[in-house]
Design brief:
16% strand; 2 domains; alpha/beta; 153 residues; Hypothetical Protein Ychn, Chain: A; five-stranded parallel sheet
Length: 153
């Protein structure tokens, strides 16, 4: 009986310790992260694919904590549709604005702007000269060389 009681006490203590470690939060265990999200596809009906990708980014921030994240979103080719559609799709616009307020950087490919004759000032939501990179794919490679984790949602 004494062995049984000691074992139960040990299990109870282990349970409290385990529960305490879960309560400290996942953000503590993930540490600092540098991530590049790659979007170069069409958004589909009602921009569903774009909204899903931005929701993934928000979920990532929620898990790790904005203070522990450095996130860049590289948009090229059809991916520029994120910021084009955000001009008229209020739900998408809200997601973009919210992510930007959490220091997520959206970078736009200059090759796509030129090739598709897109005016970033009038055709896209909140793009400034410092947001434009010469080449989306070259920027992806560069960021990975700098230690960013590549994610294609």
């Amino acid at each position: 009986m004494k062995v049984f009681t000691s074992m139960m006490t040990a299990l109870a203590v282990f349970g409290v310790v385990l529960a305490g470690s879960v309560k400290t939060g996942a953000a503590d265990s993930y540490g600092k992260q540098k991530v590049v999200y790659h979007i170069n596809y069409e958004g589909g009906d009602a921009d569903k694919k774009y909204r899903g990708a931005l929701r993934n980014i928000q979920n990532h921030i929620n898990a790790v904590g904005a203070e522990n994240m450095e996130i860049k979103v590289i948009l090229h080719g059809n991916g520029l549709g994120v910021l084009k559609s955000a001009k008229t799709n209020d739900k998408l616009k809200g997601q973009v604005v919210s992510l930007k307020s959490q220091n997520v950087k959206f970078n736009v490919c200059n090759n796509t702007l030129k090739g598709r004759k897109i005016n970033y000032e009038t055709d896209l939501l909140e793009v400034f000269p410092e947001d434009i990179v010469p080449s989306g794919v070259a920027e992806l490679s560069h960021l990975q060389q700098m230690g960013y984790t590549y994610i294609k949602p």
